[in-house]
Amino acid sequence: MRPDDPAVSATPIDLPAAEPPTLFVVVDTEEEFDWSAPFSRQSTSVSAMRHIGRAQQLFDRFSIVPTYVVDYPVASQPEGVAPLAEFAASGRATIGAHLHPWVTPPHDEHVSRANSFAMNLPAPLEAAKLATMVETIERAFGTRPQIYKAGRYGIAARTLATLHSTGFTIDTSVNPHTDYTSEAGPDFRRFDERPCWLSHHLLEIPCTTGFAGFAGTALGSRLHASALALPSQLRAVGILARLGVTNRIMLSPEGSTLDEMIAITRALIARGVRTLTLSFHSPSVEPGHTPYVRSQADLGRFLESIERYLEFFFGELAGRTTTPLAFRAALPAATGRH
Questions:
Q1: Among 189, 218, 292, 319, who pairs with 21 as Cys (CB 3.0-4.6 Å)?
Q2: Which domains occur in the chain, in start order?
C-alpha cells in the first residue's frame, strides 16, 4: 500500500489553514475475542454491544455523529444490531463496514495470523467476504454501507477496485506511519495524516497517528524506527518519548493517555493538518474484552479520556465535527477528486 503506486494513486487533500479542525469518530464495532490467543471462528459473541450507549451518550452530548464500522458477527446478531439501529434511525450514527475475515463467510481459508489480514486472501475470496458483509449489513440496517475499514488495517492496493465495485466511496483503513509487515500485514509508513483521494474515486480518511516531539515528523519517524530496531530491554522508544524527542501517538483512548491525545492533536494542527479521527474498538465499553479495559477502573479512565478530550477539542480548539459522508460531499473539485 504505497501512495505512489499507480493502483493507489494517492492525492493528498490540503484544507485551508484558516479552517477550524474537524473531528471524525470511527468505532471498530466487532465481536469479543482474546487478543492474545489464536484467531478462532467460534469467537463471535457481541455481548458488549449492550453497553455501547456508554460511548454514544458522550457523542450525543457533543453533537457528534459517530461512524460505527460494523463487522459480520455484529450485523448478523440481534444483540449487535438493536442498539445501533436505534442510533442510526434517529440520525445519531452512521453505519459502515468492518471486515474480520476469520468470522465472515465464506469460510474457505485456513485461519491464521496472516489470513487475518483480508489483503492476504485470494482476491475472489476477499471479494466474496466483502459481499457477504455488505449484504448482511444492508438487511440488518436497511442501508448499504459506503464507509469501509479493514479489520487489522488489512488493506492492499488491489482491494481498492473491489471496494469500488462493492459500492464503497470512503475507506478508513490506513494507519499512517505504521508498519505491520512483521505480521504479514500492510506498511503505511509512507502515508501521512491528511485525507486523500485514491484510485476508483475512493476518499481515504486515515486513522490519526503521528509524531509529537521536537524532532518533528521526518526526523521523528527515523528516530522512532531506529529505536524500535534496538533490543526491547533498552526501552529506547520510551526514552525518546520521555525526553520529548519523538513519540508516535494514535488518537485513541486505547493505548494513548489523554495528555498524549492532546499532544498529537496540537502537533498535527501546528503542521497544518485539519482533520483528525478519534477511534477505538467497541468491546472496550465493557471490562474484560480488550487489553485496554480490563477492570471497572480502566473503563472509568477510558470514558473519562474520551470526555475530556472532546471538551478540549470543542472548547479550547473551537473544533467542529462532521461525518465522513458529509465531508466527502462538501469537498470541492479543486481538492483533486479523481
A1: 319
A2: 19-208+251-331 (3.20.20.370), 212-248 (no CATH)
